[in-house]
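Project standup — Tuesday

K.O.: blocked on the structure for the chain from last sprint. Re-posting the sequence here as requested.
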Amino acid sequence: MTTVLSVASEVFPLIKTGGLADVAGALPLALGAIGVDVTTLMPAYPSVLAQIESAETVAAIDDLFGGPARILAADVAGLSMLVLDAPHLFDRPGGPYVGATGYDHPDNWARFAALGRAAALIGTGLVPGYRPDIVHAHDWQAALAPVYLEAAGADRPRTVITIHNLAFQGAFPQTIFPELGLPSTAWGVDGVEYYGSVGFLKGGLRASDRITTVSPNYAREILTAEGGMGLDGLLRGREDRLSGIVNGIDVETWDPNADPHVAATFDRDALFRRVINKRALEAEFALEEDDTPLLAVVSRLTWQKGLDILAESCDDIIAAGCRLAVVGSGDRMLEGAFLSAAARHAGRMGVRIGYDEVLSHRVQAGADALLVPSRFEPCGLTQLYALRYGCLPVVSRVGGLADTVIDANFAAQTAGVATGIIFAPVTREALMEGVQRLLALYADAPLWRDMQRTAMASDVSWTASARRYADLYNGLLQERA
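H.V.: unblocked you, prediction finished:
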């Protein structure tokens, strides 16, 4: 059996700030179902320790970036966990990356270098009786794991790094390099040096045996100057090691026919029950009760997500005959823009600032359509939840959005495979054209119901993607053999 150490800074259901946690929580379960033994390493934030009822200390590190650390083993929510308990790095208020003051923890470089260092030590035998075949690092926070393992020499596990969002790279001042404990040769273009700074993600991309990202289309986009965020040259040089594997979702957590968070459960053969959720969502957002399309947004409110374009379009969307429910937080100016629009359109638009996991279930179950106007989107998960719940996605033609939604053009309608609307480019005009197309489809009730059923039949599970990861791991091990 192939053994994998998955390394991530956040894991659902223990702690979550974004889609990374969902993937880090769901992929190990899907891999376990097909015979891959995955153990997950993550930091011991206070909220994580509070959720672990019993844990065993399986290893100790005398000095890990300024203090002692322990490796705790526990089983949580079906996951086999190793937790890095380093109080001097992780026992503090705030979130995983941002402190209680609202600013990044100033020692984030040490906190996540420690995560990578601990992964490398575990990979080379720190925990008695455990030595994984593969170390799989997720995003910049875990990206030094393959760098430390490369420095360990030939007797090491094979390494994989997954890019969840290339925009977040973990770049820190050159002055931290001597503190990392890497050989001096690691400072340079073939190491972690990145335009005069220490690049965590850059180092991981160069050192890993394989690179994956979370959709095939995004894997192509990051090879371009426009999409490569300054790393396109490195990635083009390693294109033979790069693959795109689309994310899945946990279809048990996101199951409209068994969801405890919604007003009425339903499946594709009982779509008439969705109206109960629509009425409940209207009440929750103080919206007028009627049969016009109820559009929704569940997102970080950022430029990347195209939410500035949506904020500029709110008046037009309401004037076109739609209603709008927005859930999210992020850029303060965007938060204010959406709140102002909701005040102008009381009864037609509602806004909830902040992230609410339970509310997002109710939104997907009750809204007619989900708007995702991202400028770039490595994969996206909200559109996968939307497909599962018959909430038809209206998405921009980028990254994983283009890989997971089938546009309702004439051919797709005729073939009965359409699952949503795709628009391009990412402009206010193109978004409104997408909304007008949605209105035309919504007016044809039988066609709309057929599209909902088709969307709900989409395979958004991890099954196929987990097999691709298993094949990738096996290929790496065969190379070594």
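K.O.: great, moving the ticket to review. The domain at 3-248+462-480 is CATH 3.40.50.2000 (Rossmann fold). The chain has two domains: 3-248+462-480, 271-456.
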